[in-house]
């Protein structure tokens, strides 16, 4: 029987990162990644294959190309079983492969609500599969009207990219929450995102639930609970994902309250030799250690680095997760990290916020200059930062990582006021008007008022 | 006699920021900013008035425009004297103005080496004065050849901007250090900067000292200690600045080892009612509290926020400074924070580094994609981060602030490996190849090897 020190199941963000971290931490161990897809799509880039990138085969994680440089073997095969007592896995063709440590990084699959009509033709989800997505794009090219169900990140990115590629397509979106992107931004930032979508001629139907998908073999409309019917000859459901955990269930690993594989702070499952990371693993909130169903490629890669580091020695700790996100709508970046003000209030924090907007270069008349607005959310008593939102120029994409660093290290409003900033006329706001620090100072002014 | 709770002397980055912070911290206090220049240039933007912005009057700090919104009064006048026992200042016309607290933010003036020929016509420095700079730009327009003395930030930015505006001007630069920007980057990054300058047809003369400026009334050449002579009908000296502290000296404030006004951790001078901040204030290193002559607008604004917060109550603390910088050469951003590897070794740290380069978007074929390279410097024993350098796409400008947050909070290599990243296909590297985290993981791998 073939055998490896480390076997990783899954070739996406979690699996590849776990294997790379295992290699860096344990240079002499043998490592194998098994994945079922011949071509692994970069998960966050899936919307962009429709318009901006234009082709799915340009948007792949180059597993077979990258891994040999790191002395990591790869294999394309379906794993049919984990036999944890024997410390081996069984492939679809019956072959057994032994392991010392196993990393389960099987990801997630689209969540599909139990709607009448969900099995009609032209009802699509965002499956991480090249041929499925290519077929979907072909159908979009022939369609007159698209309805996207769900206005989270995946939904709004898909809708915008469809607009870029198919200028004549009628596009509508349905969302049961009051606002787009409501899980990530406070209402005033959500409304900015909605403006961008409407400016792209995308109809938004908010605060409405879908009752059924209607059609004869092929979908023709979306019926809402309010009674309204939206014509749609193609529907894309983008309401989120659920952990892909069949293998882990069958072999008897323990599960957490959000149906992810239970892991400890070392990303170790209920079996000492098996680690799990990414969308398939259970997570707790960084803030209060409560269960959270947050699923992001960036969280997957962080967990994977922790799992990879801990395989043979306990080296890194997962202290719970919070989201750090960014997207682009129109030509405006939307980024956020940690809790929104609404979420912080729901969790019972006494909250103070500060907000500041200024040009993203200085002077503001610098060619190509835009503006950047930052909102920070603090706990009023401890003065600890809980979250932040940034909207404007593309530098928001990295600024959110500064906010993430502040959250992770429980920095206070004082720490951020006295931040040592790097600034430059072409690249950032001026030191006087640097958004992050000014937002903190304005929050502080309210705290002492 | 007119009197204010707070009087600030200086209308640039430190003065304006100190006044704003004073307002936010003490809403009911009366505040006056006195400055001597009618038009205050944004200090970091001075090189850019030559080419990119094209006009100095577009690059001003709008003191008189901004301050009334914050109920801060402004006055244009020269301060001739501080009478600290009486708690008032005397203006040039003899008028006295009383204060409860005084903030000295008088900045710096260009350092001019005692070179023979330094007083010849067409030998310029970078003075923060609109009419001086406009006259310099006019002279540049008539010149055949420019020699810039000093290859620090100000020198390289001036040279590049002169190239943008005056395509036929012969430009040379002389630097006594072995590399351009040597105080900020390790040699391999300096060499990348030098490539950009040479690509812009700027001649670099490194590791050479200037012996004299030569000419008959007007400068015609720069003579080097090696004997070489460089023809130049205009010379710009950009070798740094020295604290502008005449007023503070005359009134008997104490001074520090680098000739700055001595301040304590609250930015308070030897007189309890007088604070100082920015280029005129003495500074110590964040790393070992040793004296440092580092002068940056971004440091000035940080110190100013601390001074402004502490005027009537001790609210914020300065824990020492480190540089966080960025510039753009060619179309490439160069950014850095904290110690270089060379500086860390000189300070006696046992150092380990990690470096990682990857596309700044994902997939790498995303339109407009570039690359970004990050080097991190750690103390090997404590695993604490000491510094970082980033070169590549413009997002380096904000990435350096994430590095700054990590340095300031003494994060370890483990903290950065387990960082919760926000990523997006258009805005950043992929979560697998995110530069900051991978550089940390590679440094860690060396530490445990």
**Secondary-structure-derived class of chain A:** alpha/beta
- Helical residue percent band of chain A: 25-40%
Query: Number of domains in the coordinates of chain A?
Result: 3
- Low-pLDDT segments, ≥5 res of chain A: none
Count every beta strand of chain A, where a strand is a DSSP E run of 2 or more residues. 26
CATH topology of the largest domain in chain A: FAD/NAD(P)-binding domain
Q: What percentage of amino acids of chain A are in beta strands?
A: 25-35%
By CATH's scheme, which homologous superfamily of the largest domain in chain A applies? FAD/NAD(P)-binding domain
Can you walk through the features of this model?
The structure is a homodimer of 449-residue chains. Chain A has helices at 13-25, 63-66, 130-142, 153-165, 187-199, 246-250, 297-310, 341-346, 396-408, 413-417, 435-448, and strands spanning 2-9, 31-35, 40-41, 60-61, 73-76, 79-83, 88-91, 96-104, 108-110, 123-125, 145-149, 170-175, 202-206, 210-216, 218-224, 229-231, 234-237, 241-243, 274-276, 283-284, 291-292, 324-329, 332-338, 351-359, 371-379, 385-392. Chain A is 25% helix and 29% strand. In chain A, a hairpin with a 4-residue loop joins strand 7 (88-91) and strand 8 (96-104). By secondary structure, chain A is α/β, with parallel strands linked by helices. In chain A, strands 1, 2, 5, 6, 7, 8 and 19 form a 7-stranded mixed β-sheet that branches. A 5-stranded parallel β-sheet of chain A has the order 10-17-11-12-13. A 5-stranded antiparallel β-sheet of chain A has the order 22-23-26-25-24. The termini of chain A are far apart. The radius of gyration of chain A is 23 Å and the shape is globular. Chain A has 3 domains: 2-108 and 242-310, FAD/NAD(P)-binding domain (3-Layer(bba) Sandwich); 112-239, FAD/NAD(P)-binding domain, CATH 3.50.50; 324-448, FAD/NAD-linked reductase, C-terminal dimerisation domain (Enolase-like, domain 1, 2-Layer Sandwich). In chain A, helix 1 packs parallel to helix 7. Chains A and B meet through helix 1, strand 4, helix 7, strand 22 and strand 23 of A and helix 1, strand 4, helix 7, strand 22 and strand 23 of B.
